[in-house]
Structures are given as structure tokens and as C-alpha cells.
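Homework-ish question, so no full write-ups if that breaks the rules, but can someone show me the predicted structure for this set?
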Amino acid sequence: MKRNRSPSPQVVRVMHALAAEPSRWRYGYDLGAEVDLKSGSLYPILVRLADRGLLEATWEPGPPGKPARHLYRLTAAGLDQVAQLATEAVAQRPPVPHRRWKEA
Amino acid sequence: MKRNRSPSPQVVRVMHALAAEPSRWRYGYDLGAEVDLKSGSLYPILVRLADRGLLEATWEPGPPGKPARHLYRLTAAGLDQVAQLATEAVAQRPPVPHRRWKEA
DNA sequence: CCGATAACTCTACACATGTAGCGATAATCG
DNA sequence: CGATTATCGCTACATGTGTAGAGTTATCGG
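A: Not a homework solution, just the prediction itself:
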């Protein structure tokens, strides 16, 4: 059965980092430093978010001797979701017994 | 003053590895495993040998996400030198008091 | 033969991406 | 509510190149 987990704190950190400047392309190494996640946690997260259509991805060729960079950016859907998250954060006060992430 | 050191055992190992199949292009990571040298020892050696004209180098583009490979191969001069080394190894028996590497 | 020092090797680190596999967590259904 | 199990996060490893800096070695001039 398909399950819909609510975004983990790690995912939220990544999305916020990307949302800070939504038009800018970011790459893993960079984001990992900012958000304090190791490659083994971060890359799977990025791939999953991209699979769900929340991120779009490209490659930046990269100078000889250094690997090409995999670039990511929020899609419209991704931005929406960040907004949603913020709304929920505000709504977290009232004792509406736990409501979670609802698929769009 | 410029000095002429005789090839270190590490350098000899690298040159022999390359001499095993002189027409084949090899790259650092690969050679490092074969010859058991870490990058920090190997790359400077390769660069120095290339500077002296004993190796020739190219780049192999490399798939996205992985760095381009820096390829190396012995030049004619390089092969010569390997031969020279072998000769000296044979000549090492007689007590000719230490003769070293003579510039071509 | 000896001392100055060029030349060298090695340990760390930085850059960059990604996978395998294990254990934790949480959504869904009975 | 409680068990099942999809989904997730994390550690470790693999691939690859290269530099900085510390310390070592050995060549050459005297």
C-alpha cells in the first residue's frame, strides 16, 4: 500500500533552504553543508523530492578534475508545499487532534 | 640549484605499472590501487613525471556526477627510462661505487 | 665528509556524487 | 489499540581528482 508520510524535520530543513531563494539552483554538497546533512541522507531526500515533482533537477558540467554538479530547485508544487508547511506550523496551537499532510 | 634525484621506489612502482602495457591510458585512482599509493602521494608523482616529459596526459570526459579522469601514459623517453632502470638493476651487483641516474 | 636545501613522500583535507544495507519510525487496516 | 510493513534516515563505503603543509631524504658544493 502507498503511504503518505508527513515531511520529516530533515526534509523540512532542505525545503526551507531551497525556499530561501527559490529561483536559485542549488547542489547537494552545498545544501548538505547548510542544512547539516551527510550525503547519504541528503541525496536520497533530494531524489525523492524530485520524484514527487517538488524539485526540478539539472546538471552543471563542472570543470575538469571535479565532478559535475547535480542542481536542484523548487517547482511551483514545491513552493506550495513549503507554504502549506508554514501554515500548519501556525495552526499547530489548537488541539485539533493530529491532522497531517494531505495529498493535493 | 637544480638537483637530480634517482627515482624513488614509489616512482619506480608507478613506472613499472605503466610500462606493463605502454599503449594503455591509465588514470590515478586505478593506478593508486594497483601500486598502493594514496592520492596525495600518487598525483604529485604523476604530475612531476609528466613535467619531465616521461608521461603524456589527457582528459577523459567522465559521466555526470563523477569527475573527469586524468589519463597518463609513458612517452618514449619514459619507456627508455624504465629500460634504463632495469639495466641498472642487473648492474647493481658489481661494486661500482654508487652510480646514479644520469640525465639523458 | 658535511651541511644547506631542493626534492620528495605522506597525512589530512576539500570537493562532489551516489549506493547498500540496517535499524528506526510511522501510516494504515483490522 | 496494536501489528504490519512501507518509507525513511544514517553509517559506511566507493569513485575520482587534487592541494596544503609537515616532515624526511639525499644531492651537490665546498
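Now go work out the reasoning yourself. Hint: The longest strand of chain A covers residues 55-60.
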